[in-house]
Amino acid sequence: MPLNCSISLATKVPHILGQGRRYAPNHFGKTSCFLTYSRNYQNKSLQIVSLSKLNQTQNYTSSIMEEPKSLDLLSGKPEKYSKEIDIAVRAVQMACSLCQKVQDSIISKSNNQVQSKDDNSLVTVADWSVQATVSWILCESLGSRNVSIVAEEDVETLSKTHKAGLLEAVVQTVNECLAEAPRFGLNAPGVALTTSEVLEAISHCNSSGGPIGRFWALDPVDGTLGFVRGDQYAVALALIEEGEVVLGVLGCPNYPMRKEWLNYHHRYHRIISKLTPPTSESWDKGCVIYAGKGSGEAWMQPLLQGNKKLVWPNSARPVRVSSINNPALATFCEPVEKANSSHSFTAGLAHSMGLRMQPLRVYSMVKYAAIARGDAEIFMKFARAGYKEKIWDHAAGAVIIQEAGGVVTDAGGRPLDFSKGMYLDGLDRGIIACAGPVLHDKIVEAVDASWNSSSL
Ligand SMILES: Nc1ncnc2c1ncn2[C@@H]1O[C@H](COP(=O)(O)OS(=O)(=O)O)[C@@H](OP(=O)(O)O)[C@H]1O
Ligand SMILES: [Mg+2]
Ligand SMILES: [Mg+2]
Ligand SMILES: [Mg+2]
Q1: Which protein residues have their CB within 5 A of the ion that is ligand 4?
Q2: Confidence of residue 160 (pLDDT cuts 50, 70, 90)
Q3: 119 CA distance to ligand 4 centroid (A)?
Q4: Centroid of chain to Cα 49
């Protein structure tokens, strides 16, 4: 055996269903290596067939072993972007932890950390703090000259908002979060960031995207309305290269690893229904879902809990879209706010297609996570005429659904175009994401049939 393997062995004979080649840093002893393996998802076993290290491939047929509990090091990271995915997942985990604290403080103290922007949409301490934190982590880990970011928030609005203590609250929140970086296997700053360093990190996100080169798209808090209402929201980070989304990470702090646990989430539900959540060990309140383009896999890991003893690496498991393609059994998701998507148009579509389930109205890109995980089958968004969808609201979700086996297009059936700057320019009518092509084709047809008679 070329390297020391410490995974426990199982005796089951595998029926090989999956195989792949993975970068497994530090998985075998302290050596970084690539491994080629065969995986059986049914009995959760794994067989390593070769290892390569320092350009030397060694054939190595291991015994069949139980899938390691910590799947992260074997997770679906395509080699080309493995470093970027790794850093992006850790940064989003940190951002989720930051958001949980700010959401708790907004809800419990009804404090004044919520502001209105010029377009009357909301922004909070969490939006600016996550933007600064993620920007700082990406620059620190990849070199600031290599990091270009398109993101939702800007320093002008923060400086213009003459709210006493707002900027100080952002600086403090960022520093508290960055001090925790070692728990996530990342470096913390040697000394706390100054106000101007925090502003610099926010304004480093000044790229406007486009068709050339590589940039990150960040929505620090997607579904800010859900966030301030104590409900669902997401942290969304994607990497776009030559106009194509190459990786996506979605942090969903209030979307538990298991759908059944949603009932325990909401504080109000808990009071009203007196449901007792499962024990803290077994209950993962939130999740992070991620995928790299072309891997054919999407992965989900639990949020790192507040418990300081829990440190990286975190475990991950694959997620897949639902196999339902009968509209009568399918669930569709849409934005909560009528102002963001026409509920009456989608109700008509649902009726004409024979969708019988009540729509699942959820804030934020958690809707994309729900489709990728198989909790729902369809996501539709039809904004009012003239509204231009932004790339950071869809990039991470789109690649994750596609790699989990689903289809994401505009209402004309064309792929979303992330190469046109900060907006999804050229979008035909709306966005349709589905668990599979059968449902997708039916919706595109139904939209065509009813569009001219709609008021959109
Ligand atoms: N008028 C209008 N029409 C369509 N979309 C809009 C509109 N205004 C805002 N936005 C963008 O929608 C993002 C929130 O989308 P959601 O799907 O979460 O909507 S909802 O809150 O559930 O209703 C929201 O993202 P965040 O600002 O990150 O919350 C906005 O980018
Ligand atoms: Mg958003
Ligand atoms: Mg946002
Ligand atoms: Mg916003």
Answers
A1: 121, 224
A2: confident
A3: 9
A4: 32
